[in-house]
Amino acid sequence: MQVAERAGVSLASTSRALHGTGASRAMVDRVRAAAAELGYSPDAIGRSLRMKRTFQVAFAVADIGNPVYVEMLTAIHEVLAPHGYRVVVMSTGHTVASTIDLVRSLGSGFVDGLIVSPLRTDDELVKAIQQAPVPVVVIGRSLEKQGIDSVSTDSAAGLGQAVAHLVEIGRRRIGFVNGPLDTTPGAARQRGFDAATSGPAFAGDHAETEQADDFTVAAGLAAARRLLSRTPAAGPFDAVVAANDLLAIGVIRAAGELGLSVPGALAITGMDDTEIGRVFQPSLTSVSLGSAERGRAAARLVLDRVGDVVEPAQQIAIGPHLVVRESTLPADPPAATPADLPGAEDVAGPPASKEKSAR
Amino acid sequence: MQVAERAGVSLASTSRALHGTGASRAMVDRVRAAAAELGYSPDAIGRSLRMKRTFQVAFAVADIGNPVYVEMLTAIHEVLAPHGYRVVVMSTGHTVASTIDLVRSLGSGFVDGLIVSPLRTDDELVKAIQQAPVPVVVIGRSLEKQGIDSVSTDSAAGLGQAVAHLVEIGRRRIGFVNGPLDTTPGAARQRGFDAATSGPAFAGDHAETEQADDFTVAAGLAAARRLLSRTPAAGPFDAVVAANDLLAIGVIRAAGELGLSVPGALAITGMDDTEIGRVFQPSLTSVSLGSAERGRAAARLVLDRVGDVVEPAQQIAIGPHLVVRESTLPADPPAATPADLPGAEDVAGPPASKEKSAR
DNA sequence: GTGAAAGCGCTAACAC
DNA sequence: GTGTTAGCGCTTTCAC
Fold first, then answer.
1. Taking a C-beta distance cutoff of 8 angstroms, is the pair B332, B313 a contact?
2. Are the CB atoms for B115 and B139 separated by under 8 Å?
3. pLDDT, mean of residues B80-101
4. What's the rounded Cα separation, in Å, for the pair B109 and B113?
């Protein structure tokens, strides 16, 4: 700041001039000019120390490479950046313990808030979040009762939508390829499948689950091989519900290996409605969980909180909705592309830069 | 810090005890205990102000959603996190001007270094980078002569590899679907294609370029439709080289529309070797540009620089290499999946968590 | 509307 | 090996 003082005014005035409040036109001009000349921009750290705000928000997930989290990150960034907030990417690690460490590390005050989507949760983590020194928003299961801001979606209901759709197009023997049950999404989706396929409401003849080791294509392929090698008494499977798009693509590949046409012999649904599913051949029917929307909602929540809104914990729910594409088309069309790019039908969301890319 | 002083020692000792240097066993134990009791962790901002280091590095690209950048981000994070560095995600915007603004903003000192991969570059940006107050590493074209650390790859040569491969498997009439020419990658790849298909070394009969509006699936589909609607005098195209994987997938879809089998009637190559290409049906032959490796290299470079290594600007080149998959298989196999998951053959790189995902 | 001065939390000299 | 002290760059009272 000594530098900008070359404008012949005090430190205080310089600060005031550069940062809005209470300075005369003349002062502002003078200081601005001097600052421009010297190529000066105020030090973010000094500012942070004084103001006790870093203008940074952390986004933490287990695996930043996951398309779903990438969509969230993009959305979060888009909401936060215009407000002058930077986004710090962090990893929760794969265990609850490492996630707790992460939350505790907020104590050093390098961010004003945290958006976290933990794969696994327990009471200790909940407690750590409750005691966190900065606002924390959880994307995942609802924690309203625990007094924690959260953005959730009903993936169990989403699974119900997928099953209902398959039954509606005449499928009766439905397999479910799920990911690890000890994860929050894995557990929720299992609940959804079980609910949808048990009781008199289920019009199908058979329902069966096979568990994949992970939410990946490779794991989906392996699990689907196991599932499809079995033939239920009611007859061979005519549909498979996958717990996410990556698993679903593994299932499609397994179907290919076995010479099963998709959707002719085997209809397949995914979940998350990711780009990869939209452009796949056949394009993938998927339950959208509104990843971008959840990201935006979470970002707005932290923004509220850091702006010292002190209302009680909020819970925002984003409804799942099914997007029907080729992989569950009633008739088995030739391997041609539909008139427009698959996925064109569901450009309902924001006019975001979906399918954008380069280099 | 007043708090931790409850341990009955001075501020300085507390700092020393918590942060390594020169404190007795007893002191360390005592302070650690007190700190643990009070749930204290040292304030990152105060520390930064004093040390003039933020322990943060920014990673800036035009579009964080692009799979290539996601791979880089993951790799960068993996290298930096163990060294105690946080990663701040930023956007370069789509114009050179906005990228220049970004570089200038480093003046406020919120990060210790920047890794940037600009789509477009000009002299002014180069100058801004040279004058930047913190180390900047550019991923893209080589800027060694300009005294800027850079990590580059020879995508032009990579295009040559793709063309050579197609010629080798007997293709003679090769189309090229490129992205915008006014981008650094677009220009380089055009140069590569032109070099590979002109002069006596080219054993093919015809070479022709069609430009897409963007590096996306949709743009690739549109461009491929235009390209394939033309029939060169030498005969219909029997191969298409795409400037990246997303464009290539657009080309595959266009081929589907026209009833052209891939690779039977039309062999197709992509570039970037992304997950989406690896799992696609048919899996995509692609020129790997070592995204993760470039990310790691860039991260190590900034790490060197912030550790005040003062050597002259470095330039690290990552060689492109072709990964052959189904989309250019000499014979047209039935639509079955190969024995293992496509892409399994090229797990040469790090044992990274490729195809990892969840939720 | 402007200047002077205090102090955010920390680490690194510097004495002892 | 430990305590004392200065000061990093900024914003914000508090006087004027």
1. no
2. yes
3. 97
4. 9
Q: How far is CA A73 from CA A286, A350, B91, in A?
A: 21, 15, 12
Residue nearest to nucleotide D12 (CA to C1'): A12
Between chains, do B74 and A91 touch, taking CB under 8 Å as contact? no
Closest-CA residue to B155 (of B234, B99, B215): B215
Evaluate whether A159 touches A169 at the Cβ level (below 8 Å): no
Domains of chain A: 1-42 (no CATH), 51-152+292-318 (3.40.50.2300), 155-289+323-331 (3.40.50.2300)
CA atoms within 13 A on the CB side of B84: 8
- Please tell me what DSSP assigns to residue A95: S
Q: How far apart, in whole angstroms, are the C-alpha atoms of residue B28 and residue B4?
A: 12
| Chain C nucleotides reached by a protein CB under 7 Å | 1-13
Q: What are phi and psi of B99, to 5 degrees?
A: -65, -40
Which residue ranges have CB below 7 A from strand D?
A: A 1, 11-12, 14-16, 18-19, 21, 42-43, 45-47, 49-51; B 9-13, 16, 22-24, 26-27, 49-50, 52
From residue A128, how far is each of A117, A132, A291, B84 by CA, in Å?
Answer: 14, 6, 25, 22
Q: CA nearest A141: which of A242, A289, A323?
A: A289
At B87, list the tokens. 């990663």
What is the distance in angstroms measured between the alpha-carbon CA of B50 and the sugar C1' of D7? Answer: 8
User: How close does chain A come to B170, measured CA to CA in Å?
Assistant: 26
Candidate from A4-8, A69-73, B100-104, B354-358 with smallest mean pLDDT: B354-358
Helices of type H across B215-274 = 217-229, 245-257
| Residue B290: both structure tokens together | 């070592």
pLDDT digits (tens, 9 = 90+) for A228-237: 999 999 999 9
Dihedral (CA of B264, B267, B273, B275) sign: negative
How does DSSP assign B268-323, residue by residue?
A: EEEES--HHHHHSSSPPEEEE--HHHHHHHHHHHHHHHHTT--PPP-EEEE--EEE
The residue behind tokens 């000499």 is B330
CA atom of A48 to C1′ atom of D15, Å: 26
| A309–chain B nearest CA distance, Å | 24
Question: Residue B257 — φ and ψ, nearest 5°?
Answer: -55, -40
Could you tell me the distance in Å between the CA of residue A14 and the C1' of nucleotide C4? 14
CA-to-CA dists, residue A1 to A34, A336, B108, B229, angstroms: 11, 65, 12, 64
pLDDT number for residue A312: 87
Note whether A255 and A247 are within 8 A (CB). no
Contacts of B237 (CB under 8 A, 6+ apart): B173, B174, B175, B206, B208, B227, B228, B266
Residue with tokens 């009781």: A199
pLDDT classification of B21: cutoffs 50, 70, 90: confident
CA–CA dist A89, A91 (Å, integer) = 7
**3-state secondary structure at position A276:** helix
Cα B160 to Cα A123: distance, rounded to the nearest angstrom: 57
Residue with tokens 């209302």: A311
| SS3 letters across A161-227 | HHHHHHHHCCCCEEEEEECCCCCHHHHHHHHHHHHHHCCCCCCCCEEEEEECCCCCHHHHHHHHHHH
pLDDT tens digits, residue range B286-332? 999 999 999 999 999 999 999 877 788 999 999 999 999 999 998 64
Burial B212-240 (b: 16+ CB within 10 A, else e): bebbbbbbbbbbbbebbeeeeeeeebbbb
